[in-house]
Amino acid sequence: MIYLDNAATSFPKPEAVYQALDAFARHDLANPGRAGHKMALAAERALDDGRHLLNQFFHGDAPERFIFTLNCTDALNMAFKGVLKKGDHVVTTDLEHNSVSRPLVAMERAGTITLTRLKADAGGTVDPDAVKKAIRPTTRMIALTHASNVLGTVQPITEIGRVAREHDLLYLVDAAQTAGVVPIDVQAQFIDLLAFPGHKSLLGPTGTGALYVGPRAKVGAWREGGTGGDSSNEVQPREFPYFLEGGTPNVLGVAGLSAGVKWVQEKGLAEIHRHEAELIEHLWRKIDEIGGYKVFGHRDHAKRVGTLSFHSDGLPATELGGILDHSFDIAIRPGLHCAPYIHKSIGTFPDGTVRVSPGPFNTKEDIDVLAQALQEMKL
Ligand SMILES: Cc1ncc(COP(=O)(O)O)c(C=O)c1O
Predict the structure, then answer these.
(1) I need a surface site. Which of 51, 97, 104, 240 has the fewest CB within 10 A?
(2) In angstroms, how far apart are the furthest CA atoms of the chain?
(3) For residues 2 and 374, what is the distance between their CA atoms, to the nearest angstrom?
(4) Ligand 1 atom closest to Cα of 73?
(5) Is 338 labeled as catalytic in the residue annotation?
(6) What is the separation, in whole angstroms, between the first and last Cα of the chain?
(7) Cα(254) to centroid of ligand 1, in Å?
(8) pLDDT tens for each residue of 224-250
(9) Which of 307, 47, 77, 71 is nearest to 197 (CA)?
(10) Ligand 1 proximity of 72 Cβ (cutoff 6 Å)
(11) Measured from the CB, is residue 6 less than 6 Å from ligand 1?
């Protein structure tokens, strides 16, 4: 199988991740606890090490501000539901994944918040000036994706962050498609809430993710429960990260995630991005040569991640995806990719597009096999 669905989750993982998971599961997989036995302390240390790594990686304010979650969706829900209050207005965009838009629409329909959804331009980029113009006296938050999971286009998050800070608004960035490929500095980019998965470009296992809660954001407890310490307290201890992390955490997953982050640091973001951009450009050229397919989003690879969406003049996306899977053993993702609004904007709703997303271990030969299949399907 040629796996080209890394925007959904990365596969394969680096060898170091498999080794870290195996070693941790065999020797250290106790329930982390600050007041516990040696194995519990070792498990607690794995969480601490993971938080330190992430704090360094994203230039956070403090390691304990990184709250481990199940995935990016969990982190986004924790942020929206823990922060937004009745009467708040939120500015967001039509590039968003359902993990951003559904919780916001649910809060809008419940009468809690009002929402402005800005359109990206034809190339798939949101204009910081449009964000500025959408701000009202009741605006509390600007929430947007760092890169579109359909088009791969990277958004001007620093400029938009500056707008948010100038207006004293909370700024939430969904880094599902960029964490591990595009540098992110939460302090320099004015980010108050950064949600990201551990299982995509950070190369950790599924079941991992985190929310960074900057000092300007006050997030209410998402769930209450055991925190491995301070057990006489009748209510959730206020201390971070425990305040937001009730229950047994995915410490095995975090051990794997830490190995993934170290691999990314050693390889270097620029190198990972260069490799993926080269594969995408290679595919784009082949698609141009073949004809009969339309690619979406601008072509400036400095402002893209390794995700390409296209559709065929002849075959619906789902059919094309099925044929690639069954007849050619190639895994891509057809459909709406949980991001319906951008498909409405680019005219591909409801069929969607074919999305190809190589990872660090894909090769030009993989792309050649895909291009050959696309050529054959055109005949
Ligand atoms: C832009 C974006 N946001 C959020 C998510 C949700 O991530 P997770 O599957 O980790 O919940 C995804 C997943 O593809 C995504 O692409």
Answers:
(1) 240
(2) 71
(3) 14
(4) 11
(5) yes
(6) 23
(7) 18
(8) 999 888 889 999 999 999 999 999 999
(9) 71
(10) yes
(11) no
